[in-house]
Amino acid sequence: MSDEAETPEQDTPRAVTAQPDRMVWFQHMEDRCAEEGYFEPVGDRHWAWFHDDGPGLIVSFETIESILARDGQLSFGHSVAATRGWSHLCLISDGETWFREDRVYRYFDRLVDEGFFEDFDNVLFYGAGSGAHAACAFAVCAPGASVMAVQPRATLDPAVTGWDDRFARLRRLDFTSRYGFAPDMVEGTSAVWLIYDPAAKADLIHAALFRGPHVRHLRARFAGNRLEDALTTMGVLPRLMVEACEGTLTRHIFARLWRRRLRNLPYLKELLARSEAAQNQRRLYVLCRALNGRVNLPRARRLFGRLQPLYATAADRAEAADWAED
Question: Which of 104, 129, 137, 175 could cysteine-pair with 180, CB 3.0–4.6 Å?
Answer without folding.
Answer: 175
